[in-house]
Amino acid sequence: MSDNTVRIAGILVDSFFPLLKAGLLYTVPLTIISFVLGLFVAFITATVRILDIKPFAKIAEFYVWIIRGTPLLVQLFIIFYGLPSLGITIDAFISAIIGFTLSVGAYSSEIIRAAILSVSKGQWEAAHALGISKKQALIHIIVPQAIKFAIPPLSNSFISLVKDTSLAASITYTEMFRVAQQITARTYEPLWMYTEVAVIYLMFCTVLNILQTKMEILFERSGN
Predict the structure, then answer these.
(1) Helix, strand, or coil here: 55?
(2) Per-domain residue ranges for the chain?
(3) Does residue 172 surpass a pLDDT of 70?
(4) Does the structural domain 3-223 have CATH classification 1.10.3720.10?
(5) Residue 137's pLDDT is what?
(6) DSSP letter at 171?
(7) CB 38 within 8 Å of CB 105
(8) Are 75 and 99 a contacting pair, CB within 8 Å?
(9) Helix crossing, 56-69 with 92-117: angle to 10°?
């Protein structure tokens, strides 16, 4: 075994736990907070559009159009680097939360809206016949049925968000990928360091895929 191989192996071993620690302490919380807030924004956005509450429906449609039509990296740069020129300075963590929340909100609102619209129109008509308002029918009858349609794509969005959080490194937030960049700057081994961080992302996403499958099975059983 050559000296260089031993050196690289030592670097990988030494860097594994700092990377994993950064993932657990920074990447995971950033993902969870952004996703939960994003789901709240998504539900409000989808509800406003389905109930056609004016003028908020048009505002929601415009918001979805803007977020889905521009790169997430550009949005993060506008929030973190652009807003200070207007006198609005936001730290890296909050900037990342805002950026990812808006992104999740826009994309997930379309998932939720599609799931709600997939519920049979007969459900709406039956609720109307019973004197139930459209808003009450949506919350108490339609949404519970739509959840099983929304779970798989929302789970995929969550897994994608785990990987997207690496973009927070571009606005100096010290999550897992940022730590990998810092270690790379010291070791001059970009191939091995970025491969190692990719493996850790893969580990996280594999666990989430397993949980997603179990959740889908659970919802299928509860729906039967």
Answers:
(1) coil
(2) 3-223
(3) yes
(4) yes
(5) 78
(6) G
(7) yes
(8) yes
(9) 110
